[in-house]
Amino acid sequence: MAARPMANLTAIILFLLLITIAATSAAPAPAPVAPPATKYINHTVGGPIGWFFNSTSNTSFTNYSSWAASQTFNLGDYLVFNTENQTVIETQNATTYRSCTADDTSDETTFVWGDDTAGKKTIAVPLVTEGANYYFSGSGDGQQCQQGMAFAIEVNHGLGLPPILNQPPLAQSPPGTVVGTEPSGSSGFRSGASLSGGLLVAFVLVLNV
Ligand SMILES: *[C@@H]1O[C@H](CO)[C@@H](O)[C@H](O)[C@H]1NC(C)=O
Ligand SMILES: *[C@@H]1O[C@H](CO)[C@@H](O)[C@H](O)[C@H]1NC(C)=O
Ligand SMILES: *[C@@H]1O[C@H](CO)[C@@H](O)[C@H](O)[C@H]1NC(C)=O
Ligand SMILES: *[C@@H]1O[C@H](CO)[C@@H](O)[C@H](O)[C@H]1NC(C)=O
Ligand SMILES: *[C@@H]1O[C@H](CO)[C@@H](O)[C@H](O)[C@H]1NC(C)=O
Ligand SMILES: *[C@@H]1O[C@H](CO)[C@@H](O)[C@H](O)[C@H]1NC(C)=O
């Protein structure tokens, strides 16, 4: 007689176990979405290979399009170009990108980062515009670009721009700054950002008076 309630209890436990297993396996698998951005990331272009062109083989050191496809880009991230003797042209104009030259462009989304001085350098380019952004080498009259020194990225919103990069749209910069040349290759701030830095300094000075 004592065996019956025990058997019932075992049955109930088994039943509950089965329900749990069924519920677990019936639950839909989570959709494979990109994890939400939790911090800003510096993407080293080409990884350890860097941003280089081999003029002997007439090819880029690596496939930069493949590299770009392996990354997730968000506002406020930086592209870090470790390179030598190179500049980087940034544009949001697909026509300019495909032509491998910024010479003909009249739009205000095209910038030249870095400078022409020889030697190793690191060019840090902040991602400040959502959507399609294009990068290419202007060296060799666009020939390096045609031979693989070029890539396109899609910039997601992520966390949005951090305050230091959250400047007025570049479209508001005065005419005549169609293609901006960054004076220093080491720290990449667009002219708009430097301008506001100056205003900030001016503001602090006023406070000190
Ligand atoms: C990313 O690069 C920028 C620009 O060089 C620098 O200010 C920042 O400290 C770097 N962030 C990290 C996490 O390395
Ligand atoms: C450049 O290309 C040449 C010819 O393919 C090759 O012999 C050389 O090792 C390459 N240089 C570098 C630094 O990869
Ligand atoms: C490298 O490739 C470009 C573009 O295809 C071509 O115009 C150029 O003649 C090539 N240069 C050499 C050294 O092979
Ligand atoms: C680079 O990789 C992309 C795919 O990511 C491919 O479409 C393209 O043909 C490759 N380019 C070269 C020069 O191999
Ligand atoms: C950079 O330029 C210097 C001086 O012209 C040259 O000696 C060096 O080989 C160049 N480096 C690359 C990676 O092109
Ligand atoms: C993109 O650049 C081309 C020339 O490279 C120019 O004709 C066109 O107006 C530009 N587009 C925009 C939206 O600025």
Task: Outline the fold blueprint.
Blueprint: H1 3-26, E1 42-44, E2 53-54, E3 59-60, H2 64-69, E4 73-74, E5 78-84, E6 88-91, H3 94-99, E7 111-113, E8 120-126, E9 131-136, H4 143-146, E10 150-156, E11 180-181, H5 191-208
Parallel strand pairs: 1-5, 4-10, 7-11
Antiparallel strand pairs: 2-3, 5-8, 6-7, 6-9, 9-10
Account of the protein in words:
With 209 residues, this protein is an alpha/beta fold. The chain has a single domain (42-201), classed as Cupredoxins -  blue copper proteins (Immunoglobulin-like). It has 5 helices and 11 strands; from the N terminus they run H-E-E-E-H-E-E-E-H-E-E-E-H-E-E-H. A hairpin with a 4-residue loop joins strand 2 (53-54) and strand 3 (59-60). The longest helix has 24 residues, at 3-26. Residues 12-21 and 170-209 have low confidence and may be disordered. The chain binds 2-acetamido-2-deoxy-beta-D-glucopyranose (6 copies). The site of one 2-acetamido-2-deoxy-beta-D-glucopyranose (NAG) has 4 residues, from loops.
